[in-house]
Amino acid sequence: MIKVLDVSGLRSDRMDALDYAIIKSGADAYVLYASSDEADMRYLSGFKTSDPFVYFKKPNHRSIIIVSQMEHARAVSESHAAVMTKAQAGLVEILKTEKDPWKATAKMITNQVQGRILVPPKFPLALARALQDSVDLIVDTTCLESMRAVKNRAQIAAIKNVQRVTESALDLGISLIRRSTERKGILFAGGKPLTSERVKFAINNHLMDHGCIAKDSIVSCGEDTAIPHCLGSGALKAHQPIVLDIFPKDERSGYFSDMTRTVSKGKPGAKVLEMYAVVCDAQTLAIRQVREGVSGAEVHQTVVDFFRDHGYDNTTTGFVHSLGHGIGLEVHEPPALGPSGKGLVAGNVITIEPGLYYPGVGGVRLEDIGAVTKKGFSRFTKFPRDLVV
Amino acid sequence: MIKVLDVSGLRSDRMDALDYAIIKSGADAYVLYASSDEADMRYLSGFKTSDPFVYFKKPNHRSIIIVSQMEHARAVSESHAAVMTKAQAGLVEILKTEKDPWKATAKMITNQVQGRILVPPKFPLALARALQDSVDLIVDTTCLESMRAVKNRAQIAAIKNVQRVTESALDLGISLIRRSTERKGILFAGGKPLTSERVKFAINNHLMDHGCIAKDSIVSCGEDTAIPHCLGSGALKAHQPIVLDIFPKDERSGYFSDMTRTVSKGKPGAKVLEMYAVVCDAQTLAIRQVREGVSGAEVHQTVVDFFRDHGYDNTTTGFVHSLGHGIGLEVHEPPALGPSGKGLVAGNVITIEPGLYYPGVGGVRLEDIGAVTKKGFSRFTKFPRDLVV
C-alpha cells in the first residue's frame, strides 16, 4: 500500500493502517464529517477549521477533504489531503432540489463514495440516517482509535514541547506561592491577597505567550481540593494543600499535555502530609509497573490495592478517579488507565495521576506524563514533587 | 407543563419546549451523550466538563445528568439538572458482563429510559447502534436547534457582555496600529516591527484578563487579507488593508461574540478604498433589511445583488462567503444568513459580515453583531467603522 504524503509530520506515519482497516472490513472508503475541533478529523485531515467538513479516504488513494470555497486556499496550503470545494463536489446543484442539509450533505458524499463506508463512532446519527438508503455504514470502533493511541516521533515531540511550556508555566505559578507572605493564614503578594485567580492568570498568560491555550486550569486550595475538578477561587491559604492542575493545548500542533502538582505554603496538617507521602509512593509504584503488555486495569488496580493497604478507600472518598489516561489531540483519550484499561502498547502517551480526596481534610494529586516503551515508561515530566514551598 | 428550575439564567426559559417536542414526536424522553464542549450539551445540562456524559429529560420531570463519581459534587453545585453518578445508574454492575463501552453506556441509558427516544442530529452513531435493539431513536433536527437559536434576556446579556470585552480588545489592537510609525512601508512600535503576532497577543491577553478565550484570532495584512480565514503573520505594512477578526468565548457563560474591522495605517490604494466603501454600504443595507419574518437567504441575496450592481462578483473571488451567521454557544450556529437561510425570528442573535476578496488586491470585511427584533435589528456592536487610522 502506498505511503501518503505527510506534510505536517504530526499525522501518523502508519496512515496505511487506515487503508488496511477499510480493506479488512470489506469497505470502500472511510468517511468523516466533523469540524476539526473533533480530534479524529484534526488527526486525519491535518486541517483546522471550526465548521464541519467532509473527509474521505479510499484505499490506495490520497485523502480528500471537501471544504467551502472561502477555505479552499487555506486548505490547499495547510492540509496534507487533496482539497475539493463543496461546489466542485456538486453541492450547489444538489441544493437546488434537496433542501434538507443532512440529506444534501449525504448526496454530496455519495457523489464521491459508494458501497460500504467505514465511519468513526461519533459519526452524526442524522447524517448516517440520510446516508443509509444508498450506502452501508460500518462503525469503526478500533482502527482509528488504535492509530491515534500510538504516537509517532513527531507527535511525541509535539507533546514534549507543550509539556516543556506547561512546566515553565507551573513553575511560575508555584514561585508566586513560594514567594508570597502569610498574614493571618492568608497568602499575600504585592500587598494584595494571592488568589487562585491571580495564579491562574500568571500561568495562562505564560502559556498563551508560548502559543498554548489552557482551559479550566485548576488552582484550588484547602476544602476545595477535596473536589478533584473544582477550579478554585479566592485567596490561597497557608498550611493548606494547593492543587495546581493544568492541561494546555498547543494551538499550532493541536496536542495537549497535562500535569498536576500539590504544594503547601508552610507545612500542612499531619493527615495531608501522610496522604501526600502515600500518593508519591503510589505514583512511583505505578510508573515502575508501566511497560508494553501490561494492562491499564492492572496498573490502576495496583494503586487501588496499595492505597487500601495504607488505609485509603476508593469509594465516594479516597481514590475516586482513574489512575490516568491517554493524551494527544484530546486531553483524555485511549488508552484507559482504569478498571476497563486494556494492554498498553509502546508509543502510547499516558498520564499517571493518583490522588486522594477527603472532605474536611482536603485533596492531594500528582500527575506526570510520558510514553509507554517496550521495557517501561519514558517520563516527559521533569518537575520536582516538593510539597512544602 | 412545569417550569424547570433555572439556576444559571443562561438556559432557555422556554425549556418546556423540549417537553413539547418529546410529546409531539410521540417520544418518552430526550437523550444526549456528549461532553459539554458540544453546545447542545452545555445548553441543556448547564454543566461544563470535557468528558462525555449522559443527559436525559422526560416530560414533566426534571432533567437528569449521569456523571462520574469524581464530578458528582461539582455537578450538584453547578448544574441545574438533577445529578446521578454512573455507579448509581448501574454502570459498575453492567461492566461486569458488558465489556463494550458503547453497549455498556447504552444499557445504562436504557436502565433510565425506554420506548421512543428523541436525540439531537450529532448523536454518536456507535451509541445509536448499541441502543437500537431496545429503543426507538428519533432524530430531532428542529426543536433543540430552534430553542438555541432564540436567545432569552440572560443569554443576550451574556453575548453583549463578551461583545463589550471584544470591542475593548479590538480597540487595543487598532490603537497599536494607529500609534505605530512607518519605516520603508513597515509599521514599527517600540523600536521593533509591529507584527500580526504582537497585535494578536495584545488582543488575546486583554480578552484573557477579562475571562474570555480567543482561538484563531485573525490579524492579517496585505495579500493575506484576500484569504478570508488566513490568520496572518509577520510585520504589518502601511497603506495596506489589515483585517482584524476576533470571536472570543466567555469561559464562564460559554457564549461567543464575533466582530471584524478592516483598517489601514495611512491611505490604501484606490481599489481597496472603493471596496471598503461598497462593503460599508452593503453592511448598512443588510442591517436595514433584517427583522423578524425576513429570510436569511433574502438578506444574503440582497448583498450579492448589491455587490454585482457595483461590479463585484461572488464566484471564487469577490463575496466568497455567507453574509453572516447565528451565534451563541457556538461561533457559527443557526440561523444561516446565506443561500439556505430561512425566516429570521425575534431573539435570533446574528452577525452581518459582508466582505470582498481579490488576490493581488486584498480583502475587506466588516462584521457587526446584534439581535433580530420584530421590527429590525438591535445592534450590539458600538465600534466605529473607520478604515484609515
Secondary structure blueprint with pairings:
The structure is a homodimer of 389-residue chains.
Chain A: H1 16-24, E1 29-34, H2 39-45, E2 53-57, E3 64-67, H3 72-78, E4 82-85, H4 91-97, H5 101-110, E5 116-119, H6 125-131, E6 136-139, H7 143-149, H8 153-179, E7 181-183, E8 186-189, E9 192-193, H9 196-209, E10 212-213, E11 218-221, E12 242-246, E13 249-250, E14 259-263, H10 270-289, H11 296-309, E15 324-326, E16 333-337, E17 349-352, E18 355-358, E19 362-365, E20 368-372, E21 377-379
Parallel strand pairs in A: 1-5, 3-4, 5-6
Antiparallel strand pairs in A: 1-2, 2-3, 7-8, 8-9, 10-13, 11-12, 12-14, 15-16, 15-17, 17-20, 18-19, 20-21
Structural class by sheet pairing and helices of chain A: alpha+beta
Number of strands of chain A: 21
Low-confidence stretches of chain A: 1-14
CATH class of the largest domain in chain A: Alpha Beta
Provide the gyration radius of chain A in Å: 24 Å
Give the full name of the CATH homologous superfamily of the largest domain in chain A.
Creatinase/methionine aminopeptidase superfamily
Main sheet summary of chain A: 6 strands, mixed
Largest interface: A-B, 51 and 51 residues
Termini gap of chain A: 56 Å
On the 0-100 scale, what is the average pLDDT of chain A?
94
* Count of domain modules of chain A: 2
Write out the strand line-up for the largest beta sheet of chain A, numbering strands in chain order: 4-3-2-1-5-6
The CATH topology of the largest domain in chain A corresponds to Creatine Amidinohydrolase
How would you name the oligomeric state of the polypeptide chains in this document?
Answer: homodimer
Percent range of helical residues of chain A: 25-40%
The shape of chain A is elongated
Number of helices of chain A: 11
Q: Mind telling me which CATH architecture of the largest domain in chain A this is? A: Alpha-Beta Complex
- Quote the beta fraction of chain A: 15-25%
